[in-house]
Amino acid sequence: MTVLIVDDQPDVVWGEQNSIDWKNLGIQRILTAYSVGDAETLLLEESVDILLCDIEMPPRNGLELCSLIQEKKLSTRCIFLSAHAKFSYAQEAVRLGGFDYILQPAPYSDIESAVARAIMDIHEKSHADPPARPPKDSTEHPAHYAGSSNSVARAIEYIQQNISRDLNRIEIAEAVFLNPEYLSRLFKLKTGGTLSEYITWEKMELAKEMLKSTDIPIGLIAQKTGYTNFSYFSQVFKRYTGLSPLEYRRMNDC
Description:
Blueprint: E1 2-6, H1 10-19, H2 22-25, E2 29-33, H3 36-45, E3 50-54, E4 56-57, E5 60-61, H4 63-71, E6 77-82, H5 87-95, E7 100-103, H6 108-124, H7 150-161, H8 169-175, H9 180-191, H10 195-213, H11 218-224, H12 230-241, H13 245-251
Parallel strand pairs: 1-2, 1-3, 3-6, 6-7
Antiparallel strand pairs: 4-5
C-alpha cells in the first residue's frame, strides 16, 4: 500500500514519515508533498491508497485534494490533520467523503490508529457493504437516511445488532473504524440526529414492542434493552413516552 503525506511544513512531514511504524501497518511506499499542487500531481500519477493531509496550506486548501479524489473517482482514503477546530472544515470533509479528521496536536499513535482503520476499511470494501436495516414503521427517524453513508449505515446496523448492551460512542466508532468525534459529526450531518438519540430511540421502540406484545417482566425488558438500572430505564421510558412502563403496558393491554 502507498500513503501520501501532505503538509506545507517540512518538519511536520518529516515527523509523520519517521515517527510512525509504517512497515508494521503494511505500508510499502511513503510519498510526500509540501503543496496542494504537488500532491495533485502525485494523486493523478501514482496509485495512492491513503492521503494524510493538512487543511490550511496557503494559498490553497487541503480539502481541494479530497474534492479531486471525489471528482476523479479515486479510491484513496483521506485523513485530514488540522490544528483548526472549525466545524465547517469537518463538515466539508464529510461532504467530500473524507475518512477521518484528527485535530492537531495529536500523538502519532492517533494517526497510526486512523491509518490502521483506513487499511481495514480498504480491505472491507473489497466486499459489498450490507444495507442497514431500517426501523419498523418509521419514515422520519434518522435511520431512514442510512443509505447516504456506508459508515452511518454500519453504525446503525451495529446498534441494532447490539441493542441489549449499554452502548457508547467509542465502542460504535471502533466497530466502524472511525474516530469517535468524526463519527458523531458524520452521523449528525447525515441524519440530523445524534448517536445517543438514535440509541435511545432503538431501545425505547424495542421496549414498547415487548411491553405491548409479550408478558416479559418489565425488569427483564430493561435488561434486554441494555439498562442494568431499572429505575433509570423507567425514567428514560417515561421521558420518551410520557408514561411509565407499567402504565404503557396497561394502556396497550387487550
